[in-house]
Amino acid sequence: MTDRFRHSLSSGEVLFEKGDRGDCAYIVESGTIEICHDPHRPGGVVARLGAPEIFGEMALFGEHRRSAGARAAEPTTLTRVTHDYLGERLNSADPMLRHLLRTLSNRCRELLNGKAAEAPPGSATPQDDEDRRQAHARVYAEQELTLALERDELQLHFQPIVHLSDQSLAGFEALLRWQHPQRGMVSPAEFIPLAEQSGLINPIGRWIIDRASSALAQFAAERPRLPLFMSINLSSRQFDDPQLLAAIDLALAQHPVDPAWIKLEITESLLLQRLDEGLRLLQACRSRGLKVSLDDFGTGYSSLSYLHRLPVDTLKLDRSFVLQLDANAAGAKIVAAVIGLAHQLGMDVIAEGLETKQQIDALQALGADLGQGFHFSRPLAQAAAAEFVRKSL
Q1: Angle 63-69-71 (CA atoms, 0-180°, nearest 5)?
Q2: Are 196 and 142 in contact (CB under 8 A)?
Q3: pTM for this structure?
Q4: Rg, the chain, Cα only
Q5: Three-state DSSP class for residue 104
Q6: Are 350 and 171 in contact (CB under 8 A)?
Q7: Per-residue pLDDT tens for 313-347?
């Protein structure tokens, strides 16, 4: 049997010889492969490999010469892993991973062949050079972000959320900002994905919980008879943070805030990707008295069938729903249906991205409870947010 992916060998059959140009690796499905100096002569066996071991993997990072030969010690079936197969997956992988894999494979081959660590001139491809550039940039950016947390360069800004019925202040959403000493304000679209990919989102997330709770205590002191809430965004990466619940408990112990004043926001799509882990975490948070908000509701996931299972207090309508109000009457019917369903399930509804009075009037008429957007205020630094609270009295 020989096809694109499978290869069968009879006992003693040679698969390749030392010095042959390789273009694929092999996984042993059944039988035994002998790695040897000269597969045409008995003896000289370096290793014997059985299922499910892989060999010839150096060829996956370029058509390298085989550093040893291979033959079947008995009838053997192999699965081929081609350079193109790996390339498709590497191209979609993180540049750091691609760079490290190529570097490690080259170093291993140099050691096997007794060569110097220096690659021959011109051996790097344009993709190698680009991956190296991106990998170095990624390492540097991660180091900068780590230092930003240590040096207190990260800040929280707070966007007001209002009651649509009378446009009185209801609370804030805490939004992360990075004030870089040389670059100025770095876009969250740039550094938040970096934080999530690198795992830095866990210590940063714990920092956010502490600072947001502290700010909420300050805002609450400005108007103690009219409590405010604070929405804090969670990443699905934080589901795996073993210190997250301890950080929440510590923040509640250190800052005089009612747990019910804190709303943890999780994006709908991220929650449904890891539903079981998310449910366990959110239930643990609700057991502490915190509220839960489902962010970006309706953005491409069929979550209506899950909605009754989710421990959610608030639905946050994505801005695309708000834009539908201006587009056609059908959009307004969809928004009305979502709001009605949320209310039947005991949830309140926040509409985000509000920019015009017409949008506000339409959502108020449809029964939405809360709103936020540039019409009311842009995100504010903590001092400005405190002043906003004072003016709302």
Answers
A1: 120
A2: no
A3: 0.72
A4: 29
A5: helix
A6: no
A7: 999 988 888 887 766 777 788 888 889 989 999 99
